[in-house]
Amino acid sequence: MKNTPVIDAHVHIFPPEMIAQREELLRADSWFGEAFGHPKARMRTAEELIASMDKAGVDMSVVVGWPWQSNTDCAVHNTYLADVAARYPERIAWLGIINPVADGAISEIDRCIALGASGLGEINADGQGFLWSEPTKWIGALRHIAACQLPIMIHTSEPLGHLYPGKGTATPAEVLTAIAAVPEIHWVLAHWGGGLPFYELMPEVRQACEHVAYDSAATSYLYDPEVFRRVIDLVGLEKVLFGSDWPVLGQGKLLERVRSLELTEAEMAAVLGGNAARVYGIGST
Ligand SMILES: [Zn+2]
After folding, report:
1. Is the Cα dihedral 229, 196, 215, 224 positive or negative?
2. Is residue 283 in some structural domain?
3. Could you tell me if residue 185 is inside a domain?
4. Measured in angstroms, how far is the CA atom of residue 168 from the centroid of ligand 1?
5. How many Å lie between the centroid of ligand 1 and the Cα of residue 52?
6. Total domains in the fold of the chain
7. Distance from Cα 10 to the centre of ligand 1, integer Å
8. How far is the CA of 38 from the centre of ligand 1 (A)?
9. Is residue 52 in a domain?
10. Ligand 1 center–CA 12 separation, angstroms
11. CATH code of the domain containing 91
12. pLDDT (tens digit, 0 to 9) for every residue of the chain, 285 residues total?
């Protein structure tokens, strides 16, 4: 199993200058304020991530920015992610963050491509001020992403269950509207798609989700560990990506949990790295 690299497909890091500006950002960006208002919420740099990966046995991480409202803030974040990916090419791949409904989205998408992004993400409807059920607002940016053949990773939430900071409106019904509007995009739905895998048992939903994959970000806050086995059985092995949401969850702990599940060697290799390598076009696969 060690021949397939372990890829954590969902990790958040911040540029040191944004960590230094935490107080200003809390006031300026309401979604950031909601998530990072608690002093214990951690903002980590690439160096801290590499230390975590070394300790946990993660070969590569796909890092994403914060879903800033302004594309100017997104650009600052993207520049940092491109820089650290260039510094650690074997360890870090990155997704560019853009706000699809704010000024400058298209040019920032183009800049991310030029800087070597493996896709876009983690786009967040609530944080960035739109609904996935209102395509007119974001369709221009999403069509551009489709034309550039980039995958997009988006935040999703469950329509029920316990409340937590970051739970939002991107529920399966909302997200399915967006997928149907731009079905050619390769979508990665974070946090298990808010439960959408179950609805893939409906033939029309399964068809609409042909290019959809799911990541396991924040899984131990949301689901029983059996979710890995169950979702593989619902949607197929090739659609499930291991992602921790570090530093929200420890990489090592989640990796250990997944390894203790009853998955075959081939399933383990696909979930822990093979699928992310294929979806994001990274690593040696
Ligand atoms: Zn995340």
Report:
1. negative
2. no
3. yes
4. 13
5. 17
6. 1
7. 6
8. 17
9. yes
10. 6
11. 3.20.20.140
12. 456 899 999 999 999 999 999 999 999 999 999 889 888 889 999 999 999 999 999 999 999 999 999 999 999 999 999 999 999 999 999 999 999 999 999 999 999 999 999 999 999 999 999 999 999 999 999 999 999 999 999 999 999 998 887 888 999 999 999 999 999 999 999 999 999 999 999 999 999 999 999 999 999 889 999 999 999 999 999 999 999 999 989 999 999 999 999 999 999 999 999 999 999 999 754
Q: How far, in Å, is the centroid of ligand 1 from the Cα of 176? A: 19
Cα(254) to centroid of ligand 1, in Å? 15
Q: Measured in angstroms, how far is the CA atom of residue 62 from the centroid of ligand 1?
A: 11
CA of 216 to the centre of ligand 1 (A): 10
Domain membership of residue 111 (yes or no) is: yes
Domain that holds residue 208: 7-278
Distance 209 CA to ligand 1 centre (A): 21
